[in-house]
């Protein structure tokens, strides 16, 4: 038996090896390869947003069902994030990164090849699952490529790639959807991913980390997948199945609750938990995770809602919806380099408060939209929102990780990311469901006024019929206008409620008490 344990004991000694930074062209090529892989990942999380109406129409499903393409990716991605540490030690960071890139390429090709909503969602689940390790490992490899004194430059280059994605994604997604076909939003990952994976392996294969077999909390992981999956399915299919009037929804709800309870009990007692729930006993961590997760859920829900409303209700093309969504990254790119300097001198709660005030401002600006709103008016709040993005992630992550022992920070960053990504998926489902429900309510209220016997309704009907339209055509036209108003009023309700919720979240920020601040570089790891 002792002989069999010797190979397991040797990896820690190899893990202590520190590789020298890359030099010259090798560093340049490494930066390009890692950035291309990250860009592909981030692009894919935003490129589908403006393409949902096109995908839904092509597959013969509703726009609300089409959002499953987004939520399925986000949930699978969230579940694999906490496993990155274990997978890295099991396979080595370079092998895992390259494998993740290549599997992402395969799953992207499968997404483009999908023949139904069910197949597309299944392939998006696979894509989200294999994407989990890509971003944290790309940051780690990027930092190892540069000398310590140039770590700030490495992080700046890495962060710029992260921030450019939300600008390029909507533009590219809209243009491809309008001029080609939606599968190409996934096919474009294939050449980029193959080149990035090949280049990364050639440059970094001799710099891999040590591998060792560690136990994995299979029961905890299984319970995590069950309760998260059941809850997300319930949120996605609730409206379609009439919520708790459906036996399926009731079963999903019971499954989610029971699996969650068992998950919490198991994780608090397991020797090697898949997520360390004891971190929630720290005041800063709890306040920070709740604030960043709820804030991100509200933010991401409105990010998905805006292009849906523009295309389905106002008649914009996917290209123009992409143009309206793209400016979100401009101010983020310009302001992000200043955030690290501000954090060194100012309380992160002040900077995060500014972010939520800006989020609230742009929500209230959108709450004043109407059916005649022009493209510039839609773009202005989106442009301003970039300032909130730049001052949202890093200060709140710094706050979340402050006061923790250094050895607990990787687990804390992983758990914080998991909860945030999960709330992004939940926020999308809840927002689109509320949009439909509130639209039905507004439609009912509007038809109380626009009905036969009401002078204004009868006058419009007579006018349309005098122009040669039949009674049925006139009624259909008026119903279309009522639908447009109903969905617009519903969207405005959600924007207004989001603005109020962002203001309430400011109070949560000030529950935390900053202790030892984490560096901006460490915060960046947790933010992404």
What does this structure look like?
The chain has 528 residues and is mainly alpha-helical. It folds into 4 domains: 194 residues, MFS general substrate transporter like domains (Growth Hormone, Chain: A); 57 residues; 190 residues, MFS general substrate transporter like domains (Growth Hormone, Chain: A, Up-down Bundle); 52 residues. 77% of the residues lie in helices and 0% in strands. The chain contains 25 helices and no strands. Helix 3 packs across helix 11, helix 7 crosses helix 8 and helix 8 packs antiparallel against helix 9. It is globular and about 85 Å long. The N terminus is likely disordered.
What's this model, at a glance?
The protein has 528 residues and is mostly helical. It has helices at residues 2-9, 11-15, 24-47, 52-59, 63-66, 68-80, 84-91, 93-113, 117-131, 134-145, 151-179, 184-187, 189-204, 218-237, 247-269, 283-312, 318-325, 330-345, 348-366, 375-390, 393-401, 409-447, 455-466, 471-509, 520-527.
Output the radius of gyration: 24 Å
Query: What does the overall shape look like?
Result: globular
Number of helices: 25
Q: How many beta-strand runs?
A: 0
How far the N terminus sits from the C terminus, by CA atoms, comes to 42 Å
**Which homologous superfamily in CATH is the superfamily of the largest domain?**
MFS general substrate transporter like domains
% residues in beta strands: under 5%
CATH architecture tag of the largest domain: Up-down Bundle
Share of helical residues: over 70%
CATH topology-level name of the largest domain: Growth Hormone, Chain: A
Mean pLDDT: 83
Helix-strand sequence: HHHHHHHHHHHHHHHHHHHHHHHHH
> Briefly, what CATH class of the largest domain?
Mainly Alpha
**Main β-sheet, in a few words?**
none
| The number of domains | 4
Structural class: mainly alpha
Low-pLDDT regions: 1-16
């Amino acid at each position: 038996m002792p002989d069999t344990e010797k190979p397991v004991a040797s990896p820690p000694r190899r893990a202590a090896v520190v590789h020298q930074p890359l030099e010259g062209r090798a560093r340049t090529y490494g930066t390009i390869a890692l950035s291309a892989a990250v860009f592909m990942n981030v692009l894919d999380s935003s490129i589908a947003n403006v393409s949902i109406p096109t995908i839904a129409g092509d597959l013969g499903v509703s726009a609300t069902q089409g959002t499953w393409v987004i939520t399925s990716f986000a949930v699978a991605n969230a579940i694999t994030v906490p496993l990155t540490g274990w997978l890295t030690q099991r396979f080595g960071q370079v092998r895992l990164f390259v494998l993740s890139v290549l599997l992402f390429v395969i799953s992207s090709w499968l997404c483009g090849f999908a023949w139904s909503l069910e197949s597309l969602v299944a392939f998006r689940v696979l894509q989200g699952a294999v994407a989990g390790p890509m971003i944290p490992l790309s940051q780690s490899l990027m930092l190892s490529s540069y000398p310590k004194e140039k770590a700030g430059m490495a992080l700046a280059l890495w962060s710029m790639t992260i921030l450019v994605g939300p600008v390029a994604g909507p533009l590219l997604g809209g243009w491809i959807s309008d001029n080609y076909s939606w599968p190409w939003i996934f096919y474009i990952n294939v050449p980029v991913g193959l080149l990035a994976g090949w280049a990364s392996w050639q440059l970094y294969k001799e710099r891999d980390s040590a591998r060792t077999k560690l136990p994995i909390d299979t029961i905890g992981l299984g319970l995590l997948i069950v309760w998260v999956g059941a809850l997300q399915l319930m949120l996605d299919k609730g409206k379609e199945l009439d919520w708790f009037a459906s036996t399926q929804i009731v079963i999903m709800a019971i499954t989610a609750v029971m699996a969650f309870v068992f998950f919490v009990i198991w994780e608090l007692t397991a020797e090697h938990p898949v997520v360390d729930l004891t971190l929630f006993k720290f005041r800063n961590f709890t306040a920070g995770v709740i604030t960043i997760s709820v804030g991100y859920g509200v933010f991401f829900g409105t990010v998905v809602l805006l292009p849906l409303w523009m295309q389905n209700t106002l008649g914009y093309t996917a290209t123009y919806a992409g143009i309206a969504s793209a400016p979100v990254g401009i101010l983020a790119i310009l302001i992000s380099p200043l955030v690290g300097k501000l954090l060194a001198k100012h309380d992160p709660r002040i900077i995060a408060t500014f972010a939520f005030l800006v989020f609230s401002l742009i929500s209230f600006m959108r709450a004043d939209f109407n059916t005649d709103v022009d493209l510039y008016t839609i773009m202005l709040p989106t442009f301003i929102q970039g300032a909130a993005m730049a001052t949202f992630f890093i200060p709140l992550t710094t706050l979340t990780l402050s006061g923790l022992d250094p050895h607990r920070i990787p687990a804390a960053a992983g758990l914080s990311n998991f909860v945030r990504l999960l709330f992004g998926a939940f926020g999308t489902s809840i927002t689109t469901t509320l949009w439909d429900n509130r639209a039905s309510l507004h439609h009912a209220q509007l038809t109380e006024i626009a009905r036969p016997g009401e002078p204004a309704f009868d006058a419009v009907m007579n006018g349309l019929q005098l122009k040669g339209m039949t009674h049925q055509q006139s009624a259909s036209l008026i119903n279309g206008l009522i639908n447009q108003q109903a969905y617009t009023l519903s969207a405005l309700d959600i924007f207004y409620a989001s603005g109020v919720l962002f203001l309430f979240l400011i109070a949560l920020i000030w529950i935390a008490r900053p202790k030892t601040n984490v560096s901006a570089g460490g915060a960046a790891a947790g933010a992404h």
